[in-house]
Design a protein that fits this description.
Layout lengths: L3 E6 L6 H13 L2 E7 L10 H12 L5 E6 L3 H7 L4 E5 L3 H17 L4 E5 L10 H9 L13 H7 L1
Parallel strand pairs: 1-2, 1-4, 2-3, 4-5
């Protein structure tokens, strides 16, 4: 039986830290669905379609990884895809409390869901999309923090 996990996020933009988590998840699961959240509440820098395109470009060479947008509750989206495992990344202790709450909330909405927390490698532990966006907004060079496959999308937007 093929095991699939879902890795949700805004991916605004997708970073090397995200790719690190995706590759770690692929060691544990046959397939990983990267679920790009609409997240209008967060006022993303990049449109949903562009975030999906960036995630697809960044993961195109990782077999067993698919990318899809979603705009409903994650628990409902996972259920519609018949996926019972959610992958979440933990960079630091400060992430844990928030991620724990989200994990419990998803479990309360769908009792079948299990959340698996993965840590990125030490070299990627400090990378977040918000750090990348901040550097980009201030005309800095953040290219070492995101996959080279998305450089075109970054330059097109900035």
């Amino acid at each position: 039986m093929m095991k699939t996990a879902i890795y949700p996020g805004t991916f605004d933009p997708i970073t090397n830290g995200h790719i690190d988590i995706i590759k770690r998840a692929k060691r544990l699961f046959d397939n990983v669905l990267v679920a790009v959240a609409n997240s209008d509440d967060k006022k993303p820098m990049f449109l949903l379609e562009k975030r999906v395109d960036m995630a697809r470009a960044a993961t195109k060479d990782i077999q067993g990884v698919e990318v899809e947008p979603f705009s409903n509750l994650l628990a409902d989206f996972a259920k519609s895809k018949n996926i019972r495992v959610i992958i979440r990344g933990l960079r630091a202790v400060s992430d844990f409390e928030y991620e724990l709450q989200i994990g419990y909330a998803n479990s309360s909405l769908n009792k079948e869901i299990e959340t698996v927390y993965l840590m990125p490698s030490l070299e990627n532990a400090f990378i977040s999309s918000s750090v990348v966006r901040s550097i980009l907004k201030h005309n800095g060079n953040a290219s070492h923090l995101y996959p080279k496959e998305i450089e075109y999308f970054i330059k097109e937007t900035i």
